[in-house]
Amino acid sequence: MTHNSWIDLRSDTVTKPTAEMRAAMAAAEVGDDVYLEDPTVNRLQERAAEIFGREAALFVPSGTMGNQISVRVHTTPGQEVITEARGHIFNYEMAAMAVISGVLPRAVAAPEGIFTWELIRPSLSPKIYYRAQTGLITLENTHNMAGGTVYTESQIRAICEQAHGLGIPVHLDGARIFNAAAALGTDVARLCAPCDSIMFCLSKGLGAPVGSMLVGSREFIDKARCVRKMLGGGMRQAGILAAAGLIALERMPARLSEDHANARLLAERLKGIEKLDVNPASVRTNIVISGISRTGFDSARMGELLKGKGVLVGTVDATTIRMLTHLDISRSQVEETAQVFAQLLEQRS
Ligand SMILES: *Cc1c(COP(=O)(O)O)cnc(C)c1O
Prior knowledge:
- The chain is an alpha/beta fold.
- It has 14 helices and twelve strands.
- Strands 2-8-7-6-5-3-4 form a seven-stranded mixed sheet, sandwiched between helices. It has a three-stranded antiparallel sheet with strand order 9-12-11, covered by helices on one side.
- Helix 1 (19-27) runs antiparallel to helix 11 (239-251), helix 2 (39-52) runs parallel beside helix 11 (239-251) and helix 12 runs parallel beside helix 14.
- Bound molecules: pyridoxal-5'-phosphate.
- Pyridoxal-5'-phosphate is lined by residues 62-64, 67, 88, 140, 144, 173, 175, 201, 212.
């Protein structure tokens, strides 16, 4: 089995740059971005700001750096940051908010990963001198580990209005915000309008090889640029990367509904396999979660068996696996994946 023939459903980060991206990268006009002189980076930042209807944007090397810059800009050391218990910013970023910003994450569980103000309110610090104050609320849209679940515009607005009433900013981890917008049939500008800052990834379903964006007010982005430099994220002729990012941003959102249809199809096919616990109705975007406790295999073993048949999947916990559809997964590969599961689980019975 060669690497290229694997059906890789571990993540949408595995997407390879398209031929158009590679050509644009080779031809990119570049300059020193630390001097603000890379025309391609500047164009990417201007387009991102325009698409989100905001004053400014900043190209950053990774989503993690974008999230952590935002925490640093919005907070002061000793504050608390409310995050969803299964959130990326809390679980998969190396405790960076504690290390870089000196803040305490206050993790609050939400069903399907989607907060309401009622869920957040009890975890806000009372204004008493001996309690660390809540400095920031973070939302994740789509919610990765909850299975690509989606906040609607009105759910986001309801939270932001309450938070802003208390003087608390809201950062949106929108790694997959274009998937959320596609699922809702809305645009990212409207969907994110009430949030104080937004991070989104170019390097996932949008297919760019590297890079994420921060979007917000001019004042926020100016501060974010300083923190990016502090963290070592000031890049030089980064237009090579931004050129692919521009294509990701302009062309790729329109095709995300294909990935969503493929994810739904995968869930429907897997639901037909008796020992798998999948709910196609819960698949809103490009993430499919399946319980495997009735298969007799744990996730690690299931992963090995699938890999032996050319299919790569991710693990949530010992009895749950996770699969993402993306640019490099076709409908026929979804059908093939379902057949592989069927073969594997039929052999067992
Ligand atoms: C992927 C992801 C990020 C950022 O990941 P990087 O690998 O650092 O680019 C942030 N939040 C969520 C929800 C993600 O899925």
